[in-house]
């Protein structure tokens, strides 16, 4: 996938089809107030006003230099199942969440609006309009909670994961954190980690759903259920071949390594260390393996690693990193704080008007926005350009200058989802996009130390 | 529900029925290594060894005084759908995750073992054996990842939520964080928050699934889509009655409050403040409301609240707290770090033997455990007693001393799930359990400041 995307053609546009009915509805994965607002707006007619909602982050987590957008493909997948079936309507009726006219309206609900946004995997900065949802107030409002749930979690994981793959400087990172996240969040986390450069995941459902490489061989319990370590290793090698990874730290590491090479031979694929002082241990194990002639046997480490621990292991003879807790919890920033704000709506006279909340310090800038990234002559990003101005001008804006890379891509056109962004294809495209987008950042952007956003955000006001 | 539970009788025990086949399988929500271990263990026979796995936390998050167990009911619900259907087997076969004999074994898989544990909602301490899973190595091993995903996330939320409801000292806390968590994690978070004392949630799916009170009226976008605030308020009151909650901080708060009372009258249910200096603002708004004669109108606040912000508002005339990000992300501790460890397994001679991992500092104590809480003469908890010793003695141990409250309850008996812990009934029981368990803690336990575990954990070794 290149930065220059072809326009969506008919064969990549998929209308929301009735087959979606076979999957569970996503329409109640939402806040009650979306529906109570809907009822009042249907009654007074504002529900039908044309509106523009924008998703953006006010700030990055403390000290982070960039964020990584993830979840876009999952938003589009969830959209296909966002319908109110018999069960959902029955619940809303029984609990009097909304009245009869609103129930009737919901029964026919399909999102018929349009969505544009940053391509999944793209780097974002504070204020970047990462997604723009356009339609009637009613149809666009209803998506708020679900859109934010997906983007906030997935982007939190991808943003942390990108720092880890940066710190690993080419050594593979493997996502193993399923047990430290909600069981379905774990699937999304695996997907987001891969988008940000992870080489694979332990999560089988993520492997199935998004065609990701899955990894994993054995845990300590496997060694412990056997009479001794040698028996356990022999049985694992018999089942999986010498190319497997043997976990050598259940008892004594040095003895574990001896047992591993004894049993599997010098062609043993890898040993895994899941505890202790990994920096020193990796050194010792490398020497021991080499001394035993197992020079091709790799060393996988996996004990409470985060981006800082990975960076500290740069000098150790480690071949890959298994990362758990820290990646699935966003390494200290478990959500992105993205918001979904109404920025323009049709007024009484039928024209779109910018709107903004005025009180307190939460004020956001009204009006439709789009964005581009300014590159220098060497192709390095130098600033995030957020474009504002008259609605028509912003909606149709295309960068005239060669050094401005357009960031918005079409995602949904009048209810039809662009399938280049969904499923396994969507993930593959996002992996490429993230790699290209991160490579474009100024060098300092990938430092782990506390700092400012990698590039400043400026406003280009069209007239 | 009292601490003394009746034994499960036939009518509360539900076998895992074929109707579970209609729901999506949960069996691939797991790490690949559970299946590769299974294959090797099936081949060498250890798969059939009787085993005891234990779930526990090595430590509480920094400075926390207690944890709250949540997710037990969800584990049991997920267990009913943990089966390998055609689609799952096809994936495992196509990607060569396991061999043909393992696929054949998985096709017939149903968990036929037994599970005991702390009742959901119970307070736990480091080392508390909150869940004990017993069965063959194969059947118990397969549940590891899913059990941990559920308990780690749900308990992280409940542990944070309990601090918030403590800090609120009787004022209702309302869970509104769906948008800051994965869309399905949000449902679990709502459930866990309610278990820890929250009065309701904005999440409709959680309301539907667990029969929780749902709340919510309007957001800033609702005001902004209208021509002005008065029109928006009037329309909301027309749709929802004067008892509704009006969001008064879209423009100017004082004007918002005037508009609200003008439009809804003195019987206005509540106003909501979602920004600004809530301590001062609540004071001003209360005076203004009283001055307008709306003395019964309540004040709801909801701007980035956590337990500390709630405590700081104790002196403000606030009637309820809307809590978002911090509760669904565990207020700084988004996972519990619970582990699922093999503690005993059948040896060659057919008897259960304790096992433990020896290397590094991760060493856990081998052997089956159970637990009781020691109470003083006034019914205050004074210590967590973890019972170890010969397997039979621990398995059948009942506290003889009146001041020892038994903590383990039966959850699954030979594959049959005790439905007192599932669905809406399970949540209601967990709410009661948490309330009673927290009330029993020494007074200092509910302080928010950094401290040690509320009660020490001691080991009682049976002979």
UniProtKB/TrEMBL annotation, chains A, B:
Pfam families: NAPRTase, NAPRTase_N. Gene3D superfamilies: Aldolase class I (3.20.20.70), nicotinate phosphoribosyltransferase (3.20.140.10). GO terms for molecular function: glycosyltransferase activity; nicotinate phosphoribosyltransferase activity. Pathway: Cofactor biosynthesis; NAD(+) biosynthesis; nicotinate D-ribonucleotide from nicotinate: step 1/1. It is an enzyme of class 6 (ligase). Keywords: Glycosyltransferase, Ligase, Phosphoprotein, Pyridine nucleotide biosynthesis, Transferase. Residues 174-327 form the Nicotinate/nicotinamide phosphoribosyltransferase domain. Residues 28-152 form the Nicotinate phosphoribosyltransferase N-terminal domain. The keyword Electron transport does not apply. It catalyses: 5-phospho-alpha-D-ribose 1-diphosphate + nicotinate + ATP + H2O = nicotinate beta-D-ribonucleotide + ADP + phosphate + diphosphate. Belongs to the NAPRTase family. NCBIfam families: NAPRTase_put, PRK09243.1-5, PRK12484.1. This is Nicotinate phosphoribosyltransferase.
């Amino acid at each position: 996938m290149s930065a220059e995307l072809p326009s969506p053609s008919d064969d990549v546009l998929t209308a929301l089809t009735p087959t979606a009915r076979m999957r569970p509805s996503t329409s109640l994965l939402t806040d009650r107030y979306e529906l109570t607002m809907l009822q009042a707006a249907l009654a007074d007619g504002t529900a039908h006003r044309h509106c523009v909602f924008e998703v953006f982050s006010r700030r990055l987590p403390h000290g982070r230099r960039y964020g990584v957008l993830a979840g876009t493909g999952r938003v589009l997948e969830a959209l296909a199942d966002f319908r109110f079936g018999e069960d959902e309507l029955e619940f809303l009726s029984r609990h009097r969440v909304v009245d009869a006219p609103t129930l009737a309206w919901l029964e026919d609900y399909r999102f018929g609006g349009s969505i544009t946004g940053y391509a999944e995997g793209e780097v974002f900065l504070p204020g970047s309009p990462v997604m723009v949802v356009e339609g009637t107030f009613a149809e666009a409002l209803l998506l708020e909670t679900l859109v934010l749930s997906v983007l906030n979690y997935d982007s939190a994981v991808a943003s942390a994961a990108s720092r880890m793959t940066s710190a690993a400087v080419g050594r593979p990172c493997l996502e193993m954190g399923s047990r430290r996240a909600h069981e379905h969040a774990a699937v999304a986390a695996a997907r987001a980690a891969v988008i940000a450069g992870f080489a694979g995941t332990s999560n089988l459902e993520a492997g199935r759903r998004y065609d990701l490489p899955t990894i994993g061989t054995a845990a300590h319990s496997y060694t412990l259920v056997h009479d001794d370590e040698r028996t356990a290793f022999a049985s694992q090698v018999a089942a999986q071949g010498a190319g497997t990874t043997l976990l050598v730290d259940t008892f004594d590491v040095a003895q574990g390594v001896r047992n591993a090479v004894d049993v599997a031979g010098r062609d043993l694929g890898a040993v895994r260390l899941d505890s202790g002082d990994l920096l020193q241990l990796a050194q010792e194990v490398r020497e021991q393996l080499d001394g035993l002639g197992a020079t091709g046997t790799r060393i996988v480490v996996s004990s409470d690693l985060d981006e800082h621990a990975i960076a500290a292991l740069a000098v150790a003879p480690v071949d890959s990193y298994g990362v758990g807790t820290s990646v699935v919890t966003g390494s200290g920033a478990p959500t992105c704080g993205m918001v979904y704000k109404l920025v323009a709506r049709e007024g009484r006279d039928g024209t779109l008007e910018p709107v903004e909340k005025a009180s307190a310090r939460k004020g956001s800038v009204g009006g439709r926005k789009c964005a581009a990234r300014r590159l220098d002559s060497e192709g390095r990003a130098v600033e995030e350009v957020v474009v504002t101005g008259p609605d028509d001008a912003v909606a149709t804006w295309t960068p005239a200058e060669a050094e401005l890379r357009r960031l918005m891509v079409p995602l949904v056109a009048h209810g039809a989802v662009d399938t280049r962004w969904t499923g396994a294809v969507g993930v593959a495209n996002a992996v490429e996009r993230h790699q290209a987008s991160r490579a474009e950042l100024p060098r300092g952007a990938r430092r782990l130390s506390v700092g400012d956003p990698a590039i400043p955000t400026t406003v280009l006001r069209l007239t």
